[in-house]
Automatic annotation (TrEMBL):
This is Uncharacterized protein. It comes from the Eukaryota. The keyword Transmembrane applies. Keywords: Membrane, Transmembrane, Transmembrane helix. The chain crosses the membrane at residues 6-25, 117-142, 154-172, 184-206, 232-252. It comes from Amblyomma americanum.
Length: 315
């Protein structure tokens, strides 16, 4: 109510600052060891929502989504490189069986390499079938058996096959090198074009930044974040998520909308959609039957200056 009195009942700032204060006080009740995990999760959610809001508002240029495939490939390669270099366990990447031996003659070496190349191809085809089946089965289960989306299966199958084949061929040309895994991951990451997923791209991008920051923090190059900094960042992310979820719910995933509705006490149905639509947020796209009209502003909750500004802008 304090934010509404000072900023106006329909001001976006009332939602933002109220959620900032509530999230900051709420995160203080959490244990310090859980704050960082919650912060990383909320950073990914807030980045996804903020990107959608900025693109919808025309701040970001159209076609920027095309960069998600190279961003995913580079982020994945970076994560794999960090995992191999510092001995981190990530997604259980295992060495691919690709044995090398020494023949007694040049013809024997060529035959051995040919057989090994065939084994690499066979292994990649096996992984295509295995990962493709997993992706198709997951798509069928998550859709409750209504339909099967072939794209997840194609992506996972192609990803596993390209990673396996590239890594095995690189080992044929030379001995095992540290850059083989990142190179294979870089090429395999391009398979995301078969199933574009901004959510997956943001996850690996933030995972790469997290790993890099942790290594820099351990080396003393980057500063160590304090508890207050983590709490402030968490509050900002929650503020962005709640503000966009209330004012522009059509830009938020249905699962996020359900989460926001639970957080605010099942009050999403009480939101004045025509009032928000008048401000130019396009909220009526989720409620097409609601007419876009200027609401009757109650002077008890709306300042005269804000009401005059809103009337002039709306006309």
């Amino acid at each position: 109510m304090t934010c509404s009195a000072h900023l106006g009942h329909f001001s976006p700032g009332s939602v933002l600052f109220s959620s900032l204060a509530a999230a900051y006080l709420g995160i203080k009740l959490e244990e310090p060891r859980r704050v960082q995990a919650l912060l990383l999760s909320m950073l990914r959610l807030a980045a996804e929502v903020a990107f959608a809001a900025l693109q919808h508002g025309g701040v970001l240029p159209e076609g920027l989504h095309r960069a998600q495939v190279p961003l995913f490939a580079v982020s994945l390669a970076g994560v794999v490189w960090m995992a191999r270099r510092y001995g981190l366990l990530f997604l259980g990447f295992q060495p691919i069986s690709c044995k090398h031996g020494s023949g007694g003659s040049a013809q024997g070496i060529d035959d051995h390499k040919f057989r090994t190349a065939l084994s690499c191809l066979a292994a990649s085809l096996t992984r295509f079938v295995m990962f493709g089946s997993i992706g198709s089965a997951a798509s069928f289960i998550f859709s409750w058996g209504r339909r099967i989306d072939p794209r997840p299966g194609l992506f996972l199958g192609s990803f596993g096959a390209v990673y396996s084949l590239t890594r095995c061929i690189l080992r044929l040309r030379s001995s095992r090198q540290a850059w083989h895994d990142p190179a294979a991951a870089l090429l395999a990451g391009l398979c995301l074009a078969l199933w574009p997923s901004p959510r997956l791209t943001l996850y690996f991008a933030f995972k790469f930044l997290e790993v890099c920051y942790n290594r820099g923090e351990e080396a003393g190059i980057l500063p160590s974040g304090s508890e207050g900094t983590h709490s402030a960042l968490f509050a900002i992310c929650c503020g962005v998520l709640l503000t966009v979820g209330v004012l522009q719910p059509h830009l938020v995933r249905p699962s996020y909308r359900a989460f926001i509705d639970r957080v605010i006490g099942r009050r999403m149905r009480f939101i004045n959609v025509p009032a928000i639509a008048t401000l130019g947020y396009g909220t009526t796209s989720i409620v097409p039957d609601v007419p876009i009209t200027m609401p009757e502003l109650d002077p008890r909750f709306v300042s005269r200056r804000y009401k005059e500004t809103l009337w002039v802008w709306a006309q």
